[in-house]
Amino acid sequence: MAEPTIILQLEDWAGTTDPKERRRRQNRLNQRARKSSIRLISRLEAAACAEYALGTPRTDLLLGLVQLNVLRALIVNIDVLGFSAAEMHDDALSPFSTAGPWHTAHTKNQLPAALMPTSLQRSVCHHPWLDLLPIPQLRDNLLRASLPLDEDELCHDLCGFRSAAEGLSGVIVWKDPWDPTGWEITGTFLRRWGGMLKECWGLFQSTNYWRARRGESRLSCATWALACKET
């Protein structure tokens, strides 16, 4: 199989400090990704799956996986949760934290276990983007953050948009988007956002599993715990 060529054009963020304008640009980026990147994502996933079948997921496919497969994963989880792209606007509130028919219908047994809302999600109003992450502890950590989060910066790092300058900085999704055992955190993301990963030991285990499959060294418990403490 020929390797897919990954080309991702980003918005020019220089000099953009207004949060609403930055979010509008992020929304445009997400819309373009949804409209024009699905075929490219499919080719990339096919190549990654072929490598996985051989038991050697390759490092040189990681950049594309970070930048495109994470977007694909979030888009899929929007559908799994019963949301729509139109409902992910700037002022949206998660239906998990509001009463109504949607809330009742989707919190019984229709959702994958990892996407079931936590007690905190049900009690704290938040934007539904947070519901897309299949790591309950991470979602709760984000809701409990003592300082205001730069959500744009977090989203950029999740999708690996800093990769070219700082090395891989996002997460990598190797399996179904709602399956947390397929999510891998890069070292750069751990260093930047370790404070949000406290007690996410399942994510630690899945990260080491995929690193080992590529022949990379495992992260130690001490490294993970220190990053989570110092951030």
Description:
The structure is a single chain. Helix content is 50%, strand content 3%. It has 231 residues and is mainly α. Strands 1-2 form a two-stranded antiparallel ribbon. It is globular and about 45 Å long. This is BZIP domain-containing protein. InterPro entries: DUF3425 (IPR021833). It holds the Pfam family DUF3425.
Helix-strand blueprint:
Elements lengths: L18 H18 L1 H16 L8 H19 L20 H6 L12 H5 L12 H9 L6 H8 L4 H4 L4 E3 L9 E3 L1 H7 L7 H13 L7 H10 L1
Antiparallel strand pairs: 1-2
InterPro entries: DUF3425 (IPR021833)
Pfam families: DUF3425
Protein name: BZIP domain-containing protein
- What kind of sheet is the major sheet? 2 strands, antiparallel
Structural class by SSE content: mainly alpha
Strand content: under 5%
Query: Radius of gyration in whole Å, from Cα?
Result: 17 Å
List keywords for this structure.
mainly alpha, 11 helices, two-stranded antiparallel sheet, 2 strands, 231 residues
Summarize the structure.
This protein has 231 residues and is mainly α. Helices cover 50% and strands 3% of the residues. The longest helix has 19 residues, at 62-80.
